[in-house]
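Q: Sequence in, structure out?
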Amino acid sequence: MVLGGSQGELVAAVNALTARWAAACSGESSTVLAGAGVWPLLAYLASAADGPGREELERAVGVDVAGAARAAGEVLAILDGSPAVRAALGLWTGRGLPLRPSWTAALPEHLRGELTGVPEDDRAALDAWAADRTGGLIRALPVSVTGDTRLVLAGALTVRTAWRHPFLDEGPSPPPVRGPAGGSRCCAVPPGRPDGSGSPEPRPGR
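A: Exactly. Output:
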């Protein structure tokens, strides 16, 4: 269990969450996932949780809850430091919903918002936030907002990238290309390009 942790240890904790998710996939269908998209949110929640939920969240993020809020902020800073990655995290609460002051004080001000109780206005505000924080790649949040909605937690992760070696829809795929950060990466050919020519358009990550 990491207590706060160095940047390398935090990256390892995020990757460990992704690895556990990947290990749980059946392999029967294509799956795209990234623990980095939800790890900061889970860490912020862990810092305020108690009881069984606290233990479960602590295991999920791999960071001691005493340093979870700071770790969440550091991971968001790492993601924001990449020119290709946009990370979005937000918390909206209904008016009058009580929250623990010690927890909200640890949240960056730009992560918090207030729901008005008017569905159309709240829907527009949430969608505008998503579009702004993801460079327009995600234009709407996939949540239903009503006049009774008291809490919305949202996270999104987008990646703009071009793949070195697109592979064909038919036939064996080439070995993964080692990226500059040591990770492997590959990408399917976009629709309409069965010969693999040209550069794929950037795709949002999830």
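Residues 179-206 have pLDDT under 50 and may be disordered.
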